[in-house]
Design goal:
About 50% of the residues lie in helices and about 10% in strands. The chain is built from 19 helices and 12 strands. Helix 6 crosses helix 7 (about 225-235), helix 16 packs across helix 19 and helix 18 (about 435-450) crosses helix 19. The structure holds one RNA strand.
Length: about 475
RNA sequence: GGCCCCAUCGUCUAGCGGUUAGGACACCGCCCUUUCACGGCGGUGACGGGGGUUCGAGUCCCCCUGGGGUCGCCA
């Protein structure tokens, strides 16, 4: 095959590669922390890009200079870091791209596809009120669309785009199917504010096109923005990406999620002791599933995720399922890792000689790292009071004689490991011919101050012989 | 209110014209066990309502009801 014959083939190959390339993005506006709905959207985009060996871009939508904050951007970045989502290239800031948008706005102006509108905010508000009173849908009346006269003085104009006057804007949504919006429902929306800065629907379309975004996965609160963005794409002759509008996450009552619903901030989950892998697993199953599978590693998610399979209906989150997932991931996290996570909750175990026994005992029962820290403290710290019900239940019969015998035997013995302590308890049981509970219950009360907790032998080994004796003596003394 | 979208156990979901409607969380029993968990076994529990289409509808169509989104010089 000579070069001339090969060339068309290579061109075709290159085109196919381009077609199959997937570029997604997450585009938050920096007005607050990253919330769980945003994180799910980010995850979906990230998974889809990674699955296809494509790119995932993080773009900060900060065109509204007065509402943005640097802290919010940092909070979003921090949340990304915590859950372990990465992104390709540098973070893109729209505020640094104003000159680009300006050029496109000018282009539309020059081509007569956009125009200056001199209506003031007050006039607009008045118009809207009148329309609402008449029971009409409030919308701009296009009074400056074909304006040729002398513009009013002292009004800084906005730029509006000419939306189609008739027909439908139709697009294919990867989740919801064909969406049709009639032209009458759209108005000539503003693409540049009176201060010259561009607005959301305009810059989104420009950036998605310029950055080569092929798949836009976003919340379905953007569904109605899509036809507006399509108007921009078409006015500029840009390639329209595929859209996937993900239904919202609802609160536990099945109502719209609001700031009042508590744990909205992703970082709040860290503070509550959740593991990022549990949160991600929880979130990926909200609106998406793969048969009966509940547990997904990140690798499996990448392998199996497909935005086309996302549910059409909104889903309510339920914390108890997150708890279950978190408990699962805690059980499967190496002790060393747990010990370092525990430090965020004021528990420092790194130098404790029985840390393995302690963590092993706790990881089976804790739902969160925070809870785990609490349980550990209950073991490590001498009880200051005794559970009332426990006292009634455990301190009866010959409990005193039993514990005294136990103390006597323990004092006479070397004890370090759980088996050593277990052996002492066993001897008491044998000698007194009693059931394990007869000694177990008062002993547990002495050690923990309450009736629930890990294996007694483990607890004694963790705190050691001396503290065990101290605690038993304390109980004996307290209830003479 | 207009427009758009949606609807299977309390919750997350499987189902893609013929299923005893499956799984998970939660809940309730039982087992394991010195206790609490974990784990194992079992149970309660759903196709919002009404019309069609079809030999046959959770699955297709229409209406109602309910829910969500949206109607900014915010994103």
């Amino acid at each position: 095959m000579n070069q001339g014959a090969l060339r068309p083939f290579l061109v075709k190959l290159a085109k196919n590669i381009e077609v199959s390339m997937v570029v997604t993005r997450f585009a938050p506006s920096p007005t607050g922390y990253l919330h769980i709905g945003g994180l799910r959207t980010a995850l979906f985009n990230w998974l889809w890009a990674r699955k296809n060996g494509g790119k995932f871009i993080l773009r900060i939508e900060d065109t509204d200079l007065v509402r943005n904050s640097k802290e919010a951007t940092e909070a979003i970045l921090e949340a990304f870091k915590w859950v372990g989502l990465d992104y390709d290239g540098e973070v893109a800031y729209q505020s640094k791209r104003f000159d680009i948008y300006k050029r496109y706005i000018q282009k539309l102006l020059d081509e007569g596809k956009a125009y200056y509108c001199y209506m003031s905010k007050e006039e607009l508000d008045k118009l809207r009120q009148e329309q609402i009173q008449r029971g009409e849908r409030p919308r701009y009346d296009r009074r400056y669309r074909d304006f040729t006269g002398t513009p009013p003085q002292g009004v800084k104009p906005v730029v509006r785009i000419k939306a189609p006057l008739e027909g439908d804007v139709v697009f294919e949504d990867g989740i919801k199917g064909t969406i049709t919006i009639r032209a009458e429902e759209l108005d000539d929306f503003i693409i540049a504010r009176s201060d010259g800065t561009p607005t959301y629907n305009f810059v989104v379309a420009i950036d998605d096109a310029l950055m080569g975004i092929t798949d836009v996965i976003r919340g379905d609160d953007h569904l109605y923005n899509t036809p507006k963005q399509i108007i921009v794409y078409e006015a500029l002759g840009l390639k329209i990406p595929r859209f996937y509008h993900v239904p919202m996450i609802l609160n536990e009552q099945g109502k719209k999620l609001s700031k009042r619903d508590g744990a909205m901030d992703v970082m709040e989950y860290k503070r509550m002791g959740y593991l990022p892998e549990a949160l991600l697993n929880f979130l990926v199953r909200l609106g998406w599933s793969y048969g009966d599978q509940e547990i997904f590693t990140l690798k499996e998610m990448i392998e199996l995720f497909d935005p086309k399979e996302i549910n059409k209906a909104p889903s309510a989150y339920n914390l108890s399922k997150l708890d279950w997932l978190n408990a699962h991931y805690i059980k499967n996290t190496p002790n060393e890792k747990l010990i370092s996570l525990l430090e965020d909750f004021g528990l420092f175990l790194a130098n404790h000689d029985k840390k393995e026994i302690l963590v092993d005992a706790l990881k089976e029962r804790a739902k969160t790292i925070k809870e785990m820290a609490q349980m550990a403290k209950e073991i490590l710290e001498e009880p200051q009071s005794y559970d009332e019900k426990g006292v009634k239940k455990a301190l009866k019969g010959e409990w005193r004689e039993i514990l005294e015998l136990f103390l006597q035997k323990l004092q006479a013995k070397e004890a370090h490991l759980p088996v050593d302590f277990h052996q002492v308890v066993e001897e008491v049981v044998q000698e007194r011919k009693i059931g394990f509970g007869k000694i177990g219950q008062p002993l547990r009360l002495a050690l923990l101050g309450k009736m629930a907790g890990p294996d007694l032998s483990d607890i004694m080994a963790i705190i050691g012989k001396d503290k065990t004796i101290q605690r038993v003596e304390k109980l004996l003394k307290r209830y003479q």
